[in-house]
Amino acid sequence: MMVSRRLYWTLWMLSCFGQYSGQDLPFPEPANGAVGESVVLAPVNPPSTSILTIHWAFTSTIIISVASGVTTVNPAYKDRVSFDINTLALELQNLTLGDSGIYTLSVTLAAGETLTGETSLQVFEKISNVRLIGPEELLIEGNSSANITSEGTGIITSVEWMKDNSPLSPSNRIIFSPDNRSVSISPVQRSDSGEYQCTYRNPASSETAKHSLIINYGPENVSIEGPEVVDLGVPVSLSCSANSVPSASFIWRFNGTDTGVTTDTFTIDETDFTHSGDYECTASNSVTNSSASQRHALLVKPSDGGGGGLTTGAIAGIVIGVLVAVAGICGLIFYLVKTKKIPMLNKEQKGKSSEASATAAAAQSKQEPESNYEEIIDIQKIRRDGAVPVNESIYENEENEYENVNVKY
Question: What pLDDT shows up at residue 4?
Answer without folding.
Answer: 34
